[in-house]
Amino acid sequence: MTVLAPADSARETAGTAATRAPRRRRTSPATLLLVAPFALLLTGTVLVPIGYALYLSLFTERLSGLGFEGPRDVFVWLENYGEVLTDAAFHDSVLNVAAYALLHIPLMLGGALLLALLLDGATVRLRQVWSLAVFLPYAVPGVIAVLIWTYLYSPNIGPLNDVLPWDPLGSAGVLPSIVNMATWQWMGYNMIIFYTALRTVPREVLESARVDGAGPVRTALGIKVPMIRPTVFVALIFTVIGSLQLFTEPLVMRNFTGSVTSTWTPSLYVYEAAFISNDYGRAAAASLLLAVASALLSALVMRLSTRSGRSR
Amino acid sequence: MSSTSPTRGASPSRWMSRGAVHALLGIAALYSVLPLIWLLTSATKSVGDFSTTGAFELGDWNLWTNLGDLFAEEDGVFLSWIRNSLLYAGLGSVLGALICAACGYAIAKLDFPGRRALFAVTLAGVLVPTTALALPLYLLASELRVVNTFWAVFIPLLTNPFGVYLARAYAEAAVPDEVLEAARMDGSNELRTFFTIALPMMRPGVVTILLFQFVGIWNNFFLPLVMLTDPDLFPMTLGLFQWSARVSQFPQYTPLVVAGSLLAVVPLLLAFVVLQRQWRSGLAAGSVK
């Protein structure tokens, strides 16, 4: 209440101050101080590294003529990109991530949406308890989530190896095992996001639907889901970006099973190229291809979201 | 009163659907919590019991021995990992959230050259995967000869474009222009206005940014993995990963990895339970925009 009094008097004076507006346009040094830290960070840790990687991706290390002077960096135009794009190992890594994304995204977001709708239902008790329980895996570091699940998958240690009809650490079982870990980690987080959005759906709208005789399922699918569509699309974009980066799960699992190759996902491919093959040019090229691919895919999802929003 | 009969007629199926809803929520809760319970029970077991007892049953109580071994391993390097994780995440999230709040507030409420461009680049930054950035950051850091230092991990993790995006939304929703105008009339400069008036108004949002940035840094793995080779600089996640690589050859590392994992998880779980009201309302405010 105390802030209201000065606010009202300010509105009156604001009218007279408008005539002096051009003078206030001049940016004060204080404003720059507020903006500068983040602007510098964004430049130094995002823009410059990307620019530098772009530069490095155009070079490769070659031994000079007779090999006396040691390796030299040679400008090779887009050769590194060509090398990555024609590499069978890179193709496999892209296929693995595509299969992972096609399983993980619908399963995780579908599960999150279903749970959020159930939580939002009229008859549910102990909402806080359910939502907190399902959210908790989000707080577990990725490395540790993988360790926990890998032990649960391991023969003689966890129960899952006996229960499942396939070997969760075998070459065919690794993909569903990784999908499960990632789904476990992210479902609760997205459920909370969806549930929070569902709480903002005006209660009168739901009430009038109920009066019209719409059951809970029809209300959920016909009214609630369309109303939180923007939130769902934002979650979809973040999940797509996250899926393409898949790295921690396969890398940590490599400590326990030989079924995950050293280039199982594009991110692992980058890691392998940089730190095992020491081929920085190729690693930089693969990194940038990954960044461009995820930017294009998220742009595509955004296009889809605006189009489906307009067609309604 | 005739309107009561249809609802009464529907009540058995309503009871059934109510049971089904709770059953589904119960299954989801068990799926989420059981692996954590496994971590808790396993941390109390010796190497022998770990593979001979059932996954969720208790063996001999060995937790204190495991923790003792954990802190004794390699001259107590685990203690440094805890300290490092706390430094990276604690210092990083406080400073990072403040930087986000200042910039988000400025974008929402102040006029300065390049405001639109900065916001556009920030949004683009949200979409750049951190994994795709880690290698470029490593290459730059090695050019600047700062690889394998505290700063090589700390500074990149301060950058949180999504935090700026959220802070802008919070500032737009929570800080009325009239209040800022009044402060200007009173002769307060922009810096003081931000710290004494705008920041307190944005508090729930800033706490949410802080908490989620803390989790993001605490859980981060790829950047320390590529930047650091000195175990004294490792955060817990990287240290536990390196120990887990030895498990298949040296099973005695298993209790260390499991007990260490428990210690890495518990503080965050507690923080989320205790600060529930804060982050729930912060997420709500952020999701409106």
From TrEMBL, chain A:
Superkingdom assignment: Bacteria
Domain ABC transmembrane type-1: 94-301
Xref: InterPro entries: MetI-like (IPR000515), MetI-like_sf (IPR035906), UgpAE/MalFG_permease (IPR050809)
Keywords: Cell membrane, Membrane, Transmembrane, Transmembrane helix, Transport
Region (Disordered): 1-24
Annotated TM spans: 30-55, 97-118, 130-154, 174-198, 227-247, 283-302
Protein's membrane topology: Multi-pass membrane protein
Regions annotated as coiled coil: none
Gene3D superfamilies in the cross-refs: MetI-like
Any one of the GO BP annotations: transmembrane transport
The keyword Transport is assigned to this record: yes
PROSITE patterns: ABC_TM1
Compartmental location: Cell membrane
GO cellular component, one term: plasma membrane
Family under the similarity heading: Belongs to the binding-protein-dependent transport system permease family.
Name of this chain's protein: Sugar ABC transporter permease
Organism of provenance: Streptomyces hainanensis
